[in-house]
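hey so i finally got around to running the thing on that chain from the lab meeting. sorry it took forever, my laptop kept dying and i had to restart like 3 times. anyway pasting the input first so we r on the same page abt which one it is
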Amino acid sequence: MLKDAPRILVVDDEADLLDLMELTLGRMGLDTERAGSVREAVRRIKEGHLDLVLTDMRLPDGDGLDIVRAIGEHRPSLPVAVITAYGTTENAVLALKAGAFDYLAKPVSLDQLRALVKSALKVPEDPRRQPQERELIGTSQAMQEVRRQIDKLARTQAPVHIGGESGSGKELAARLIHARGPRGSGPFVAVNCGAIPDTLVEAEFFGYRKGAFTGAESDREGFFQAAHGGTLFLDEVAELALPMQVKLLRVLQEKKVRRLGAGQEEAVDVRIISATHQSLAKLVEAGRFRQDLYYRLNVIELNLPALRERPEDIPAIAEYLLSRQGSGMNLRSDAVGALKSYAFPGNVRELENILERACALAEGRELSAADLNLAPPAETVSDAAGLVGTYPLQDYLDRVERAALQEALEKTRYNKTAAARLLGVTFRSLRYRLERLGID
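ok and heres what got predicted. didnt touch it at all, straight out
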């Protein structure tokens, strides 16, 4: 037994596999204990003094899920990974949802075993928030639940899909999950999938070798290599074309990538967090998103509430944004009331833009409701006379079209080709609309 070495419990009824794992872990300077059944494993877990549990799914008196649940009940801070037979990914998904840290597929790859153990043993007993972290602000019940889920998700390697409207803080939530987990010291690579032209998407994701295509003047790593040891955040993942979805699925299954022009694959150790403002389930039904990839990405789902659903949080968020801008401005009570009653179709991102514009144009040190210049509510529907709105019909339609165009441009970081694809129009049509409405 190695003094003061991390202790790992390996649960399996195959003596050969136990010998192999004990030898491999011993060479990493780790102490190993064995268990051949669920009953024996649960007894050792209750006794304590363990830092990690590796368990097979099929055991003589039960399965690995029984052990995962027992750990959740008796030692919730103890990381556990399951070993599944090749091709039985359904069991792996069930284990991740039950609280498993990660999984390995048989036959066990020793490289993947070492990477998993190194990541698991970095999990802190009591994850602390780092002072430099940006926070999800708000005391509403909805935000308290979101923060609770983030702390829980940070302790697992399960793929997470974050849903929510544009501007609701999906990337911030992903960064918090990454920062509070065992990969927090590794890279966090955020990718806007809708902003990459189809002709470049494979090279951007997987990298390429010099000479792989015209213009490839040197070797370059892709997003997966850049995120090795950390987290890859796929924002607006629904914008990936179907051919790219197939290639992404294979990487998630094999945990290997092949650069364009390369003859060999290279292993990557990456946690995937994805997000979109669309419903992936509906896109699967419509044939625009692969069902198998959906199940790979959507192992655990985190939904962020819209800002209008938690108006009690708006004053605190506004104060934080004003302090971050360094303008020294304050909100008057009428401005606070106006913000709390506003619908915020753009959520926190829109709130930030409203405050920045108001600070630039206001004359005093306090912002009034008039300084905010909030858009009036949508038109009302009256009797048979038809629509009665604040604007003539064409003016109203122009405002709606302008808002949709600006939102698409912001989502794609002003990549017009990607914005046109997001809106479902041709590039020429998009350019015409931008010119007509005077949007630069």
